[in-house]
Design a protein that fits this description.
Helix content: 25-40%
Structural class: alpha+beta
Distance between the termini: 73 Å
Strand content: 15-25%
Number of strands: 5
Length: 128
Amino acid sequence: MENINAVGRRKAAIARVILKEGNGTITINHRALNVYFPSSILQYIVKQPLQTLGVEDKYDINVNLDGGGYKGQAEALRLAIARALVKVNPEDKPALRAQGFMTRDPRSVERKKPGQPKARKRFQFSKR
């Protein structure tokens, strides 16, 4: 099996994944998963597609993560890993889709409008 590339995005975060056969190590920006994401919840989010298919220790994953915050980065990485696993074995797609790992979350920050302090907030209205 040659290297499989995939991209995942969430908010401002972009995760580029290179998946190859190995023993289950996940390296993010030249750091181990538990060093880059100390939170066990974020580690769980990243590993969800692998656990769904039961292939945690079958592939080595090398990741280039950029932009966004840690939660957005973790969810972008989850999407990228799911897309890479589907490239390896297309029959796994229904199982991953049922868990919601194949859907790109379209929500992002709304832009600030001119003449307002924020996107939706307005300056205080004064009648007189």
